[in-house]
Amino acid sequence: MEFRDNKAIYLQIAEYVCEHILLGKWKAEEKVPSVRELAVELEVNPNTVMRTYELLQNKNIINNKRGIGFFITDDAIDHVKSYRKVLFMEDELPVVFRNIYLLNISFGELESRYKTFVKENFNA
User: Fold this and answer.
1) Which InterPro entries does the protein's record reference (predicted)?
2) pLDDT tens-digit profile, the chain (124 residues)
């Protein structure tokens, strides 16, 4: 995983976990990699992964079964979508809107590009 400088690493790892859930790679009630396993895989400090897991636990995306490990919650997809939607609407969308305005991009062009993107990346 390549980390960006503009966002805390634990938040980028949270995005990574959320994406795995949304893409169905990690399913409800499945065990997620241990803190140590994910830290080794992503080449980060285990404390960073623990911080990520604490955030995701607070968002009801994962839960800790003491002595067993962390698991995806039953309704994780709904919680992930809610969490990610707020982040997108508050952080990313204003930048997109600014660029749309400054570059005078029409909504028709955006719609066309969006449909092409979905078709090429998600076979929808």
Assistant:
1) Tscrpt_reg_HTH_GntR, WH-like_DNA-bd_sf, WH_DNA-bd_sf
2) 889 888 899 999 999 999 999 999 999 999 999 999 999 999 999 999 999 999 999 999 999 999 999 999 999 999 999 999 999 999 999 999 999 999 999 999 999 999 999 999 987 5
Q: Is the dihedral of CA 78, 82, 88, 94 positive or negative?
A: positive
Q: What are phi and psi of 12, to 5 degrees?
A: -70, -35
Burial of 72 (0-12, 13-18, 19+ CB in 10 A): buried
| Residue 18: exposure state from Cβ atoms within 10 A (0-12, 13-18, ≥19) | buried
Residue 76 burial class via C-beta count within 10 angstroms: exposed 0-12, middle 13-18, buried 19 and up: buried
